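Fold this complex.
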Amino acid sequence: MASGEWHCEKRFKNESFKNEDENVLETGCLSIIVLGASGDLAKKKTFPALFNLYGKGFLQSDEVHIFGYARTKISDDELRDRIRGYLPQSKEDAEDVSKFLQLVTTLLVIFLIINLRRMMRLILLLLMQIKYVTGSYDSAEGFQALDKAITEQEISKNIREGLSRRLFYLALPPSVYPQVCKMIKSYCMNKSDLGGWTRIVVEKPFGKDLASAEELSSQIGELFDEPQIYRIDHYLGKELVQNLLVLRFANRLFLPLWNRDNIDNVQIVFREDFGTEGRGGYFDQYGIIRDIIQNHLLQVFCLVAMEKPVSLKPEHIRDEKVKVLQSVIPIKDEEVVIGQYEGYKDDPTVPDNSNTPTFATMILRIHNERWEGVPFILKAGKALNSRKAEIRVQFKDVPGDIFKCQKQGRNEFVIRLQPSEAMYMKLTVKQPGLEMSTAQSELDLSYTQRYQGVVIPEAYERLILDT
Ligand SMILES: NC(=O)C1=CN([C@@H]2O[C@H](COP(=O)(O)OP(=O)(O)OC[C@H]3O[C@@H](n4cnc5c(N)ncnc54)[C@H](OP(=O)(O)O)[C@@H]3O)[C@@H](O)[C@H]2O)C=CC1
Ligand SMILES: O=C1O[C@H](COP(=O)(O)O)[C@@H](O)[C@H](O)[C@H]1O
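Structure:
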């Protein structure tokens, strides 16, 4: 395997990040059931992540079976066609498909000619059997049919019932989580307690406000034990978000600078260059604040602003996040701007009279010793002119500017989460040459240049693997 590739063994053997009770390799039939399989998340992220995990050897073909469930009536093949579009595809790939089909008997030669990863994907597309079951989210009938399909698969794999594992991934609007969880609990649980398990993965946003989040938590909590429930925020799986803890707490350089004495403001920005594209059924109920800011950007905000955790244990990290969130003072109305992009209501899945925001920006202010007076500006928008997610830490001006260079710009530390992961520091330097003049330049750590050949895993690969 190439040096940058993730490796099963490496992950399980990484002692420094290990919790006492995790990293036990399990065997037995694993069924992964994607509920809401007809939707945007499933086709863009969930299924491609599963394919990648399979390609990297984390999911074994003799143990894993994947199911899709939704109300939309489509065939297994139609579902596969939808997914195929979101796996790396280009004219070049299409040629490889036909080459592969023609040269299937000379597999070793092809391995030398075409990229190994692409090759794996082609094989997967041919081999993986994704079964699609149609049904509503509150009908016993649908979930009984789903259970039947899973059980048949488990039996065909010749595995004792109790050793089977069932992972239900709710790629659905949170409004249907309670009814779906009830159905899973009533009809689709792993049938015995001989060592298998049933787990559920729920997506953000967890409710609409405090009351509904608490209600959702107690509804799910009545049906499943806490260790069976996985709440996903995929921004936490992004490489540069994972890097934030390391960056902040493993580098002496940043320790004395990361505070109100040196930092003028912090900007955490999410932009997308496409709109809802048929996702109005989910998005219009929630809007950009609940879709992006309350979860993804707030998690990033916590990692930028929190104090050093006691250790890397999840509870310790959570405790620090909670502390910094508790120190945020109520947001002022005059420090919020919201908007809706022109054309949003043209999406047939969006109601004609919708006033749901698709853009929002706001200032968070932290009332503590480190951050008093430093605005954290959070901004998110759909259908803007570019796609980008980044953190910009802007430093204060240097006092006593003997070079008269302040107009050229401040020191700024930028962490670009996507696209093209990078970190760069904007500095003032002497313009090379005979004159003593200054210019803005950058210390640049662009991942494509620094880590050539390293394949950065998609956020969902990491998170689904953890479940
Ligand atoms: N799209 C993305 O990139 C990401 C989405 N998410 C999260 O995933 C979840 C699903 O989002 P996404 O897939 O984009 O949304 P979609 O609008 O695509 O909904 C997913 C599926 O849910 C069903 N559905 C949609 N609206 C309703 C409704 N009002 N009541 C019941 N069922 C409905 C539809 O399936 P059918 O009608 O066939 O049953 C649809 O195909 C959300 O919680 C979102 O926050 C998280 C990260 C990224
Ligand atoms: O959670 C969501 O995230 C996606 C954007 O994810 P990214 O990893 O591609 O940045 C967004 O499109 C979607 O509206 C939202 O639900």
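The two ends are 24 Å apart (CA to CA).
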